[in-house]
Design goal:
With 170 residues, the chain is an alpha+beta fold. The protein contains four helices and seven strands; from the N terminus they run αβαβββββααβ. The protein folds into two domains: 6-14 and 94-152, no CATH class; 19-92 and 154-165, SH3 type barrels (Roll). The radius of gyration is 23 Å and the shape is elongated.
Amino acid sequence: MQKSPYALILILILFTGCSSYKDLYVSNSSDQLASFNEMAEGKTGYIVLNTDKVIEGISVQVQPDSVFWLSSYNQTPMSIETDRVKEVRYQRIQRGMLQGGGIGLLVGAAAGVGVGYLSGQGTLLSSDDNAVLFGIIGAAGGGALGVFSGLEGASEDRYRLTLKRVAEDQ
């Protein structure tokens, strides 16, 4: 029984989502904290507690002592102590779609070219023509599947909260 390489290709396409981790240093003099709060204004984020519970919130604002946000359900202001928060996540759907589509396109094209060459010469097309034809079909199909898998496994930016105190803050 010969194993098909298509199972591996499908798995590669389906798991194209990426995450990037950034340390967010929480201190009174952190310019990084101010930049984060400006970036987060009006966006939906996910607050991950130390217990791994996830809370969805809008306009997450991180301060040295507390994390503030608006409830995504009724816009109620909420807060929690900063030392109870592990990280804050933001999904980047467009980036996930682009990454998934790009990887799917490349994998599909490579698989299509391989199938085209392996199919040999037919009655109408040469082996090279088959490779081009199957490469185009594979690229289109792989790209489309990649875009949809990128939607599902959207790229994430993860900000790990690091309680760093400098001498002047104490």
